[in-house]
Amino acid sequence: MKILGIETSCDETAAAVVEDGRKILSNVLASSSRLQSETGGIIPEVAAREHTTSIIPVVKKALSSAAFLGKKRIGKTNSEWLMKWALANIDAISVTAGPGLIGCLLIGVEVAKTLSYIWKKPIVPAVHTLSHLYANWLTDEPEPKLPAIVLTVSGGHTDIIFMKNHGEFKILGSTKDDTAGEAFDKIARLLELPFPGGPQIEKLAKKAKGLNLNLPRPLLGKKGFDFSFSGLKTAAIKEFKSGKYDKSILAASVQDAICDVLVKKTLSSLEKFKANTILLAGGVAANKSLRKRLVENSPVPVRIPPINLCTDNAAFVASYAYFNYKPIPWSKIQAESDTESSLEKYAKVEITRS
Ligand code: KG4
Ligand code: ZN
After folding, report:
1. Ligand having the closest approach to the CA of 284
2. Confidence of residue 46 (pLDDT cuts 50, 70, 90)
3. Environment class of residue 334 by beta-carbon count within 10 Å: exposed (0-12), middle (13-18) or buried (19+)?
4. Has residue 69 got a pLDDT over 90?
5. Are 134 and 319 in contact (CB under 8 A)?
6. What is the DSSP letter of 145?
7. 3-class state of residue 91 by DSSP
């Protein structure tokens, strides 16, 4: 089964064609992150405007790359031919319906609904909070052994999920304020580092010598698996303003505190829910310190997809749709910015803050 995935929840305009949830036939992405780096963060209206110009070329490229897979292309693909190919070969469409930036989501959702209507193809709404983890089904490695504990960490999420099976998820904990990615980005801005801040903090942290500030580990000693990173940000600002510490020491201490909380909460959820695997997902999974600590301390295998699949893309949207195949009429799909409403409306997921 070939599914066309579409993703526009944040600053990436993405489309992909995936076969049977595992084989990527095409994976195309246009990012407005260069524009965002000029402003030091994502401006929703700017990201949404970029989606409007990129979405059609990106979908077209995803279809033509899938159509010509392994074959020699002669000249420019004729649109009429491509639409005929899509009609004959694409079995379903999937789109990120939420959560995300509403102006951005709307563009992908309305394009996907239009294609579903004119092609008369089933459409599956994908919940971004869950679709990230399907990057783990798109690698060459054997399928992850379920049940799994999932740690999704990006600019948009910090969630611990218990995945009993496809379609059987429990959200064990989420952030109460900033996500881990936001904490990296906001503290990086304070240190006058460019956006996105996570990779910059990681780079700077490598230069730190000696002393590591003991920054707070919010909610670490508390029951449950929720996160909170805004207190850490306030503490880092205070230390920075004191002028006593080198930026590299601040960067190393921030990275240490964030990774410490993420790893310890993930491992304690594993202990409680007895899973066979840990699945890492989201852009912060690129952080080497996080990967190393998780791998070194986990009693079960830790799966980490390649970084281009960890960050936002449409291949994981198509894979999610294959393994959670519940098409609904296009007229019933609406972009939904809120996480809990998206999960409730489109995935019927249990949220247990245990
Ligand atoms: O998944 P992603 O591309 O987009 C969202 O859905 O947000 O994640 C982007 C986030 C940004 O906050 C970025 O600073 C963070 O991932 N990030 C990192 C690293 N690379 C990207 N954070 C820490 N260390 C990294 N190496
Ligand atoms: Zn994301």
Report:
1. 1
2. confident
3. middle
4. no
5. yes
6. P
7. coil
- Give the model's confidence band at 332: pLDDT under 50 very low, under 70 low, under 90 confident, else very high: very high
Binding site membership of 283 for ligand 1 (Cβ less than 6 Å): yes
| Bigger pLDDT: 231 vs 92 | 92
pLDDT-derived band at 353 (thresholds 50, 70, 90) equals: low
Amino acid at 188: A
| H runs (alpha helix) in the chain | 33-39, 44-67, 79-89, 102-119, 128-131, 180-190, 197-205, 230-241, 247-273, 288-297, 307-310, 315-323, 339-346
Q: Which ligand is nearest to the CA of 311?
A: 1
- Alpha-carbon distances of 42 from 137, 195, 237, 310, 335, rounded to whole Å: 29, 9, 21, 19, 19
Q: What is the pLDDT of residue 214?
A: 82
Angle between helices 247-273 and 180-190 in degrees, nearest 10: 170
The length of the chain is 354
Q: What is the pLDDT of residue 67?
A: 94
CA 342/CA 141 separation, integer angstroms:
30
| Ligand 1 in reach of 197 Cβ (< 6 A) | yes
pLDDT digits (tens, 9 = 90+) for 153-182: 998 889 999 999 999 999 999 999 999 999
Name the token pair of 213. 């500030």
Q: Which two tokens stand for residue 35?
A: 């524009």
Biggest CA pair distance of the chain: 65
Return d(Cα 298, Cα 300) in angstroms, integer: 5
Residue pLDDT, tens place only, 231-248: 998 998 888 888 888 899
Q: How far apart are CA 41 and CA 270, in angstroms?
A: 34
Is residue 198 in contact with ligand 1, taking CB distance under 6 Å? yes
Block residue for tokens 């899509």: 86
- The per-residue b/e assignment along 200-220, b for 16 or more CB within 10 angstroms, e otherwise, is bbbebbeebeeeebebebbbe
Q: Which residues surround ligand 2, an ion (CB under 5 A)?
A: 154, 156, 312
Placement of tokens 């999610």 in the chain: 320
Between vectors from CA 90 to CA 64 and to CA 17, what angle results, nearest 5°? Answer: 55
pLDDT at 34: 65
Tell me, using a 6 A CB cutoff, whether residue 185 lines ligand 1.
yes
